[in-house]
Amino acid sequence: MAKNKHHKEERTFVIIKPDGVQRSLVGEVIKRYEKIGLKLIGLKIVIPKPEVIETHYTIDPEWMRKTGEKNIANYKKKGLTPPSEDPLEITKIVLENLKKYMTSGPVVLMVWQGAHAVGIVRKITGTTEPLTSDVGTIRGDFVLDSYVMSDTDGRAVRNVLHASGSVEEAEKEIKLWFKENEMVNYRLVQEAILYDVDLDGILE
Length: 204
Ligand code: GDP
Ligand code: MG
Prior knowledge:
Elements: E1 11-16, H1 18-22, H2 26-35, E2 39-46, H3 50-57, H4 63-77, H5 87-102, E3 107-113, H6 117-125, H7 138-142, H8 147-152, E4 161-163, H9 167-177, H10 191-195
The structure holds guanosine-5'-diphosphate and magnesium ion (MG).
């Protein structure tokens, strides 16, 4: 986050993936991010193009390598042989599956703003693999998918959401999916109670 910005201006980017839309979880997802005090400043529904999905997942130049290495380690931890020892080969398959999944129907794109928006949204969303996401998170409460199941069936893991992993990633992803004039700057009345230093407007 840039030094001259206040924490309350942190932004994050969320996609409700095609399975989330099909399972009528749009309202549930919005409700959870809304209830914690975050402000919705951008919202649209689109059917993504495969090229944009590829750009989105390769915004972090390290993602291909890191995901491949994690995937290989996961196989070995379970005593299984990974489909390849080359992390980039593995991630190529993951990426192809993601392109099929993410272009299979409409997705909802959102930009949320507020203190620690990136970390707070990740916490509410839960970890990547639904099988091991904590109860109480969106992925933990609403999905039962796993890597072993998705890998066996040769498809992407269905985990309902994408949420930016860092402030830097969020900034790049927002630029990729939203034009500046598609986001709205406004003040939520509740921001006074969340952020104002002196709570001097309450008592009559
Ligand atoms: P996220 O930020 O929690 O969505 O997770 P990542 O940024 O690490 O990965 C992005 C997407 O790649 C995930 O949502 C999964 O669809 C896929 N992915 C990541 N790691 C793995 C893995 O180890 N195995 C499989 N099959 N897919 C993975
Ligand atoms: Mg990620």
